[in-house]
From TrEMBL:
Lineage: Bacteria, Pseudomonadati, Pseudomonadota, Betaproteobacteria, Burkholderiales
The protein's name: Patatin-like phospholipase family protein
UniProt-listed InterPro entries: Acyl_Trfase/lysoPLipase, PNPLA_dom
SUPFAM superfamilies linked: FabD/lysophospholipase-like
GO biological process terms on file: lipid metabolic process
Keyword match Calcium: no
Signal sequence interval, chain numbering: none
Span of domain PNPLA: 10-201
Organism: Piscinibacter koreensis
Keywords: Lipid metabolism
Length: 335
C-alpha cells in the first residue's frame, strides 16, 4: 500500500464569509478521504481561525464526525436567528452599506461582539477543556494568525499555550473590536500579516510533520471582471486585495522553497526543502460586498456553507486521484 501523502489545510478569514471554509472542511474531513491522505496541520486567521480550531478540537475530542459537528454547531450559533438579533443584524449590514457610514472608536463603548465571540469559542472550541496530554498527542498542528498592533509584527499562535484570547485576537478586526491584550501585548486581526499562516507548516517547531501538500481555502476573490468605480465597489476591492496580500506573501515563501529544491539534486535536497504542492479552493461568490462579511442572516450563512460543501466535493472529484493520492490536475479549484 502506498504511503499516505501528508496534507495541511489553511483557512483564510473574512468575517461571516468564513462559513464557506466551514463547508469545505466538512467535506474534506469526510472519512473517504483519509485512507489516502494524512492531515498534519490546520491554520487560519479570523473566521478561518475559528474553523481551523473547531476542526482541530473536534478531531482531538472524537474524530472527524465530532469536528464536523462542532463546525455545524458554531455556525448555527453565529446565525442571527432570533427576531431581535435578526433586526440588529439587518441594521448593521444596512449601516455598513451607507455611503457615509460613520466609524466610532470601540474605546467609546464596550463592544458586545467581543464578549459574544469569547462565549462561542469557549462553548464550541473548548480549549480550556483540552488537557495538555490531549494537545501534545494530537498528530495535527494548529496555528492561528494575528497582528501585533504596536510593533506591526506577524504573530502565529499554536501549541500548548493557545487560549480563547488568542482566537479572539485573530478575529479582532478594528474598529469593531478593541485590541486584545495578551501578556502585555496588544493584537488585532491577522488579516494584515498572515491570512492565513502557511510558512509555519515548514517549521518543525510548529508542525511536527512537513506536509507534501497545502490546501488553501481562499475567501477573497483573486480576480474581478471590471475596474471598480463606485465608492462602495472600490472599498470592496480594496478589502479583497488587502486580505489576499498576506496570503500571497505566504505562498511566495513556499514557492521560493520549491524553487530552491528544484535547483538542487535529489540527493542533496534536505527534507526541509522538499517540494510542497499548493492547491487553492476559492469561494465562488465574487460579487459579495464588504458589508456582507458582517451579515449573519441564516440564509446567507447556509448558502456559504452549502457552497463550501459542494466545491469541496468538486475539488475531490476534479482531482481524479489515483490510488497513490497524488493530485495531477490544476492547482486552483474555482467554479
Amino acid at each position: 500500500m502506498p504511503e499516505r501523502r501528508k496534507v495541511a489545510i489553511a483557512c483564510q478569514g473574512g468575517g461571516s464569509h468564513a462559513a464557506f471554509g466551514a463547508g469545505v472542511l466538512r467535506r474534506l474531513l469526510a472519512p473517504d478521504l483519509w485512507p489516502r491522505f494524512e492531515l498534519v496541520g490546520l491554520s487560519g486567521t479570523s473566521g478561518g481561525a475559528m474553523c481551523a480550531a473547531l476542526a482541530w478540537a473536534g478531531l482531538i475530542g472524537g474524530g472527524p464526525d465530532e469536528a464536523v459537528a462542532r463546525l455545524t454547531a458554531f455556525w448555527n450559533a453565529v446565525k442571527a436567528s432570533e427576531p431581535s438579533d435578526a433586526l440588529l443584524n439587518l441594521w448593521g449590514v444596512v449601516a455598513a452599506r451607507a455611503p457615509l457610514a460613520a466609524e466610532i472608536s470601540p474605546y467609546l463603548y464596550r463592544p458586545l461582539v467581543e464578549q459574544r465571540l469569547r462565549e462561542l469559542v469557549d462553548e464550541h472550541v473548548g480549549l480550556a477543556r483540552l488537557t495538555p496530554e490531549q494537545r501534545s498527542r494530537s498528530p495535527v498542528a494548529l496555528m492561528v494568525g494575528a497582528t501585533d498592533v504596536l510593533s506591526g509584527e506577524r504573530c502565529v499562535f499554536g501549541g500548548q499555550a493557545l487560549t480563547t484570547a488568542h482566537l479572539v485576537a485573530s478575529a479582532a478586526i478594528p474598529p469593531l473590536y478593541r485590541s486584545i491584550e495578551i501578556d502585555g501585548r496588544h493584537y488585532w486581526d491577522g488579516l494584515f500579516t498572515s491570512n492565513p499562516p502557511v510558512r509555519e507548516f515548514t517549521d518543525p517547531s510548529m508542525c511536527a510533520h512537513k506536509p507534501d501538500e497545502i490546501w488553501v481555502i481562499q475567501i477573497n476573490p483573486q480576480r474581478q471582471a471590471s475596474v471598480p468605480q463606485a465608492i462602495g465597489d472600490i472599498a470592496d476591492r480594496r478589502n479583497e486585495l488587502g486580505g489576499n496580500l498576506a496570503l500571497a506573501q505566504e505562498l511566495y515563501f513556499i514557492e521560493k522553497v520549491n524553487q530552491i529544491a528544484a535547483r538542487m539534486s535529489a540527493a542533496a535536497v534536505p527534507s526541509s526543502y522538499s517540494h510542497i504542492g499548493i492547491r487553492v479552493i476559492e469561494m465562488p461568490f465574487g460579487d459579495l460586498d464588504l458589508a456582507s462579511k458582517l451579515d449573519r442572516d441564516p440564509v446567507h450563512i447556509d448558502r456559504l456553507i452549502t457552497a463550501g460543501v459542494e466545491l469541496g466535493g468538486r475539488f475531490l472529484q476534479d482531482a481524479e486521484w489515483p490510488q497513490s493520492g497524488s493530485l495531477p490536475r490544476a492547482n486552483r479549484c474555482i467554479p
